[in-house]
Design goal:
This protein is an alpha+beta fold. The chain contains three helices and six strands, in the order H-H-E-E-H-E-E-E-E.
């Protein structure tokens, strides 16, 4: 069982991410990250470090995802030790202008992704060390 204070701290981190995304604020979106973070986005791009992560989000907030709305829901949370946690999140993105090549929205319209983050506790704060986001492929009819 995860202690309530940890669950609440992780939820607060995700709430701040949602708010920053919905304002299109790349620096605020990255505020919960450590400087030497690793990130892989839905296109498979690898972003090594905080500055490339911020730069990429500045680009998408002024381009394809300008004005988009993000909703994050925790699927699973696992504590590996007192200072390392895994959080898997369902992400729902709506209001985008377009999607990157090869990425498709769900049949209902929003883009659905699954985000896995490795969190580390430093100076009493949970921060993102690893960010791995994949798009959820729309279900297709199965051959009979």
């Amino acid at each position: 069982m995860i202690p309530q204070d940890i669950t609440s701290a992780v939820r607060l981190l995700l709430d701040r991410d949602e708010e920053a995304w919905n304002r299109g604020d790349a620096a605020a979106y990255a505020a919960g990250f450590i400087g030497d973070c690793w990130a892989t986005n839905i296109r498979g791009e690898i972003l090594d470090g905080l500055q490339p992560f911020i730069l990429r989000h500045e680009q998408i907030f002024s381009g394809l995802f300008r004005g988009s709305r993000l909703k994050l829901d925790i699927v699973r949370l696992r504590l590996l030790d007192d200072h390392v946690a895994l959080v898997e999140t369902d992400c729902r993105l709506s209001g985008f202008l377009a999607l990157p090549p090869g990425v498709q929205p769900s049949p209902e319209g929003p883009l659905l992704t699954r985000l896995l983050q490795v969190l580390v506790r430093r100076d009493g704060q949970w921060r993102v060390a690893v960010y791995h986001n994949i798009d959820v492929k729309p279900q297709t009819a199965q051959p009979r």
